[in-house]
Amino acid sequence: MEKFQKVLDLYQKHHSALGYGLVTLLTAGGERLFSTVVFSCPCSATWNLPYGLVFLLVPALALFLLGYVLSARTWRLLTGCCAPGARRGCGAGLRCTLVCTQLSAAAALAPLTWVAVALLGGAFYECAVSGSAPFARFLCQGRDPSCVAQLPLVPCNQAKESEVQNLLKELRAQSQVLGWILIAIVIIVLLIFTSLSRCLSPVSFLQLKFWKIYLEQEQKILKTQATEHATILAEENVKSFFKGSCPKEHYTPGIKDWQQISSLYTFNPKEQYYSILHKYVNKSEKSQSIRSAEGDALFPVLGFVDSSGINITAEI
C-alpha cells in the first residue's frame, strides 16, 4: 500500500510530464503499427504521392485536432461565446488569440511526433517521393533513361535496374535526416519557448509551485462541493415531485456567476489571485465583470490556471 501511495504521489507531482510522455509513446507506437500492418505502397506513378502523403499528414492533422478537443482551455474559451449578448472587446480578442496560439503549440506535440517517427521509419516518405515527378527527375539525373518510369516501383523492390533500386537507400536516408532535423527543431523551439516563458514569469519559482498546489486543491474541493450540492438539490426536487409539495429553497449560483468564474484567467500584479474563482469571491462588487481590468495580462507560464476544471476533459 505504501509503494502504491508513493507511485500515486509521483504521478500527481509529474502528471503533466507523464501525460506528454504517454502521448508521445502512444503516437510513436501507433505510427509503427500503421506502417507495418496497414500501410502498403501501391507502387504506382499515379497513387504513390497521394497515398504516402495521406498516411504522413492526415493522421497528424487528426491528432492536432484531437489535441484541441482534449484541452480544457478550448472549451473554456468556446463555451457560450456565440450565445446572444456574448460580446468580446478588442482586449478580449487579443487574449483569445494568445490562448489559441498556446493551445496550438500544445496540440502540435502529438502530430509532430507522428511525422518525426514516420520520417525516421521512411516508408511513407519513400512512397510519396517516388511518385513525385519533380523529385523523380531530380533523383534520376545522370542515371538510366528508364529511371523516372521505374522509380515508383522502388518501394516494392520491383525496379528492374539495380541502379534504380539502390535509390531506395537514398530515399530512406533523406527521410531519416529530415526526421532528425524535425526533432532537433522541436526540441530547440520548446527549449526557447519554455525559457522565455519562465524568464517573463511575473512570479517566482516557489510561488508557481504553491500556485499549482492551490489549483489542485481548489479543483478537488470544488468537485466535492458541487457533487454534494447537486445531490441535495436533486433529492429535494425528486421528493417534492412525488410528494406534491414545494421544495425547500437552496441557493445555487446564477448564470452570471457561472459565466464569471468560467472566463479566462488574467494576472494583475496589484491583485494576485490564484484562479478566476479566487478573484470572483474576493471582489467587492459582485455585479461588476471580473473578466478584464486595467493592468490585467496573460502570461504563457500561467496557462495551467485555465486548464483546471471539474473533469472537463473526461466529460467531453
Automatic annotation (TrEMBL):
A GO CC annotation given for this chain = immunological synapse
GO biological process entries = ATP export; regulation of natural killer cell cytokine production
Q: Listed GO molecular functions?
A: monoatomic cation channel activity; voltage-gated channel activity
TM stretches of this protein: 50-70, 177-196
The alphabetized UniProt keywords are: Ion channel, Ion transport, Membrane, Transmembrane, Transmembrane helix, Transport
Superkingdom, natural source: Eukaryota
- Among its keywords, does the record have Transmembrane helix? yes
Q: Where in the cell is it found?
A: Membrane
Annotated membrane topology is: Multi-pass membrane protein
Question: What is the predominant subcellular site recorded for this chain?
Answer: membrane
UniProt family annotation = Belongs to the CALHM family.
What is this protein called in UniProt? Calcium homeostasis modulator family member 6
Q: Which gene encodes it?
A: CALHM6
